[in-house]
Structure formats: C-alpha cells, structure tokens
C-alpha cells in the first residue's frame, strides 16, 4: 500500500473513511488552505460526495470490499480505513502536488516494523509478517481482462487488479458504464489493529459520551459490517452516508 497513490498523477482530494462519524471531520477552513489535507467521513458526507461508478465497477468494487472486510473480521482486527484519492482529469497535473502527496500518504502499519534479529541467516517470519502474507494471499483481488487495461504507466501484476485497472486507479463511470473525467485511487489501509483490552476500554469510555455504534473503536464484527455498509452506501445509487451520522 505504500505506493497506493501514483507517481504520475496529481491527487486533488484525499479521504480516509472508516464508516465512523464521531470525531471524523477535518476542519473545512483548514482544508481550504491545504489541498493535500486528508479529509474524513463527515467531510465526505457534508460535501455530498459519492463514488461515481457505473453498475459494472460498482458491483466489482462492492464485492471486493465485502471480501476484504469479511477477512479482516475473521482475523479479529478493526480500525482500518478505505483511503480514497481523487484525480480530476480536467485539472490534470498542473497543480504539481504529487511529491508532497506521496510523502503524506504512506499508510502507517505500525505492527509490521522490522524488529532487530540476531545473526545473519534468514530466520522464520515474525508472527505479524506471516499474518500479513496470509491476509494478502487470501484477499483474492479481482482479476480483469488484460484487454480492458491501460498498460502505459503501470507494469506488472498491479495492472490486473480491480483497484488499478485505469492508469493505476479506477476511473469513474456513468450508469451506462461510460468513462467520466475522474480517477479514484483506493485501497484498505491500517489493517493490523487488533481489538485489544486498550481498544475495549476506549470503546467503553467513548461510548459513555457518544453513540457507541458510531464511534471508531467498535468490536471487529461490528466494525466490518459497518465498514462494508458505509462503503456501499456512498457509491452512486446507494442511500448515502447521512444515516451514519449521529442525531
């Protein structure tokens, strides 16, 4: 995921979405001064955003997110996000924000930092690294017909994944599945946060002050179900994200 955003395209808007709406807003006055700000769920909802995808891509993306969230539920983790970068093709690269954007959006998977080892031989993988390999192996990304892929900018197997089919991303489409002038760069990040005792205490404490179903730290099963429901809701044709807001 370190190369989630492309080196050859400006990313004009960025959102980190969890399906939680308590404390999930970046100040709009700051966002107006910083086009590289990472916006959150309430920014997305209040701006009236939706993932502009036609029936074909919408169904494929929803199924991939369903599979990913089911797997993350199975391994008992939570607090992950869908990171969405939006490239406006009408604006192109004239804003020249790529270098700074790439610095900002390297996801933080803290549990995967290399630990010091003794000796120079190849020892066994750490439990965290082994788990990550298993997650990637089992996530089963959708393979696309190579004839539908634009190969000029990206090489290797990455081209064939659903999230990367159009110039390294997923191009917006209308209800006739015709292309629009937007490319989404998206992926699920921060996927190895276990539901520890500390997270349970955080859930309890925050739940005393706000709707415990809308705060970020909720149990893995509830987190996965809410995450998938939210992502489906914000796709074109969905019910929108407003119902996830607190009353």
Highlighted features:
5-stranded mixed β-sheet; single chain; Phosphatidylinositol Phosphate Kinase Iibeta, Chain: A, domain 2; two-stranded antiparallel ribbon; 32% helix; 7 strands
Biggest sheet architecture: 5 strands, mixed
Q: Please indicate the percent range of residues in DSSP E strands (runs of 2 or more).
A: 5-15%
What is the CATH C-level name? Alpha Beta
* Average predicted confidence as pLDDT: 80
**Tally of domains:** 1
Shape: globular
Low-pLDDT sequence parts: 101-121, 141-156
The CATH topology: Phosphatidylinositol Phosphate Kinase Iibeta, Chain: A, domain 2
Radius of gyration, in angstroms, nearest whole number: 19 Å
The largest sheet has its strands arranged as: 2-1-4-6-5
Distance between the ends:
35 Å
CATH-derived architecture: 2-Layer Sandwich
Question: What share of residues is helical?
Answer: 25-40%
CATH superfamily: 2-Layer Sandwich
Total count of strands: 7
Number of helices: 7
Determine the structural class based on helices, strands and strand pairing: alpha+beta
Listing every helix as H and every strand as E from the N terminus to the C terminus, the arrangement reads EHEHHEEHHEEEHH
Q: How is the secondary structure organized here?
A:
Layout lengths: L12 E5 L10 H6 L4 E2 L1 H6 L8 H20 L2 E2 L2 E8 L9 H7 L22 H12 L31 E4 L5 E11 L3 E2 L2 H13 L10 H14 L14
Helix pairs in contact: 3-7
Keywords: ATP-binding, Kinase, Nucleotide-binding, Transferase
GO cellular component, one term: plasma membrane
GO molecular function: 1-phosphatidylinositol-4-phosphate 5-kinase activity; ATP binding
């Amino acid at each position: 995921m370190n190369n989630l955003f492309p080196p050859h395209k400006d990313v004009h808007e960025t959102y980190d979405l969890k399906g939680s709406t308590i404390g999930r807003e970046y100040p709009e006055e700051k966002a107006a001064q910083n086009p590289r700000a990472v916006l959150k769920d309430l920014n997305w909802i209040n701006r009236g955003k939706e993932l502009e995808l036609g029936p074909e891509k919408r169904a494929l993306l929803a199924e991939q997110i369903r599979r990913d969230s089911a797997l993350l539920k199975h391994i008992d983790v939570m607090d992950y996000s869908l990171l969405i970068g939006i490239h406006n093709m009408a604006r192109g690269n004239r804003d020249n924000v790529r270098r700074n954007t790439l610095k900002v959006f390297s996801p933080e998977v803290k549990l995967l930092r290399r630990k010091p080892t003794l000796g120079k031989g190849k020892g066994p993988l750490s439990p965290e690294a082994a788990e990550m390999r298993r997650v990637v192996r089992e996530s089963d990304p959708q393979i696309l017909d190579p004839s539908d892929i634009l190969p000029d900018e990206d090489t290797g197997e990455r081209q064939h994944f659903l999230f990367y089919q159009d110039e390294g991303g997923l191009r917006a489409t209308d209800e006739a599945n015709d292309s629009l002038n937007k490319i989404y760069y998206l992926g699920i990040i921060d996927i190895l946060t276990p539901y520890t005792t500390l997270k349970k205490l955080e859930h309890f404490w925050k739940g005393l002050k706000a709707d415990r179903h809308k705060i970020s730290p909720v149990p893995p099963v509830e987190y996965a179900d809410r995450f998938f429901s939210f992502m489906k809701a914000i796709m074109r044709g969905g019910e929108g994200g407003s119902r996830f807001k607190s009353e």
